[in-house]
Amino acid sequence: MRALVVYESMFGSTRTIAEAIGDALAQRGTVRVVEVGTLMAEPGGDVVTHDVDLLVVGGPTHTFGMSRPSTRAEAVRRHGAVVSTSGGVREWLNNVRLPGAISAAAFDTRVGTMRLAGGAAAKGIDKWLSRLGASMVSPPTSFMVAGVTGGLLDGQVDKAREWGAKLALTLT
């Protein structure tokens, strides 16, 4: 199995989750975990090649959905330096080309008190990947943070590893 994990992260929590998912997937195959701005800057970064069996995409929830340039700018204004500085998952998905048959999954990070709220970045990512022709192998999944810059709640990294292991099993 070959997997590609693409993430956008503001303050590091989404990156930590992406890395934990990648660690779990690596138990079953080859994995590349890459920040979306880095990927977009690479030649061919807007094309997922046919040798990728599983695409996992995640980002932080901003105002009940995927981040936008305005919400990322506001995060910088209010909280300082961020991990993803040159575009986000929304922009990448708007330009990416996927192979005809690819399995995919979507995740996000969001404030723990938002559990009952209707919006989540993972839902938007899931819908977008589906529209691009991906076969979704898991419902959109959220990982909780203590606050905008508060870090992950206890148990979320373990949850991410478990989810990554389940994703790997869907391809074997």
TrEMBL record:
Pfam families, per database record: Flavodoxin_1
Domain Flavodoxin-like: start-end pairs: 3-168
SUPFAM superfamilies: Flavoproteins
Xref: Gene3D superfamilies: 3.40.50.360
Domain of life: Bacteria
Protein name, as recorded: Flavodoxin family protein
Species of the source: Actinotalea lenta
